[in-house]
Specification:
This protein has 221 residues and is α+β, with helices and mostly antiparallel strands. 56% of the residues lie in helices and 15% in strands. α2 runs antiparallel to α3 and α3 runs antiparallel to α4.
């Protein structure tokens, strides 16, 4: 009888203890249970259930983390786009205050997501403004794939660092009209950009160019 009901017990673990108890009770083994063996049965049952249900729970957790990573990447890119359109108008002077309202606000939101959800979020570009965002050779290869295949909206892979594996979601960023106020012709960059980023390479873009990508990373286990 116990083998017949086992799939049911696993599917509904909340009632597994009562199920086990009443099977023994109806089998005339109440005295066996009262002899102190019920605790052993419960522990054994929960152990077996943990073996069968752990993969499902782990899969659910991984699915949730992946969904969160995709959502985070989309939010960051959309936020930058929306703020740039709202704060940057044609032929306006771009000041440090403008910069803070757009890129500064995005950076703040990125930090919030990382602290709250435990992701590592990175921006990578071959033509970077801040050298910390310089793309590695591997990242450049992925960027080239995004540039050649514009139908690819995002890509997953597994990255390895110091022997540890990480899930990584990457989403491309494309240049919009508002971006050209700071990323257009080299000689038209705001002076504070020139002063603040002496290694700047993020200029001479055109609308529709691949600007870089956002990466959202978290441990595989």
């Amino acid at each position: 009888m116990i083998y017949f009901l086992f799939p049911f017990i696993i599917q509904y673990p909340i009632i597994n203890t009562l199920t086990i108890y009443w099977m023994f009770a109806f089998s005339g083994m109440t005295s066996y249970l009262e002899g102190g063996h019920m605790q052993v049965i419960i522990i054994f049952t929960m152990f077996i259930l943990s073996i069968f249900t752990y993969p499902a729970h782990a899969g659910d957790e991984m699915g949730a983390k992946k969904a969160g990573a995709v959502s985070a990447a989309e939010e960051i890119i959309q936020m930058r786009s929306t703020l740039a359109r709202n704060f940057i108008k044609p032929d306006m002077e771009i000041t440090e205050e403008t910069f803070k309202n757009v890129c500064g606000a995005v950076a703040k939101r990125v930090k919030e997501i990382m602290e709250k959800d435990g992701y590592k979020i990175r921006h990578a570009s071959a033509k970077y403004r801040n050298s910390v965002n310089a793309a590695t050779p591997e990242e450049i290869s992925i960027l080239e794939t995004f540039d050649r295949n514009r139908e690819i909206k995002g890509q997953w892979d597994i990255a390895e660092t110091d022997g540890k594996k990480f899930q990584r979601y990457m989403k491309p960023i494309f240049v919009e009209d508002a971006c050209l106020a700071c990323h257009g012709p080299k000689d038209k960059r705001p002076q504070f950009i020139i002063d603040k980023y002496p290694e700047d390479r993020a200029f001479d873009f055109k609308t529709g160019d691949l600007r870089g990508m956002v990466e959202v990373i978290f441990p595989e286990n």
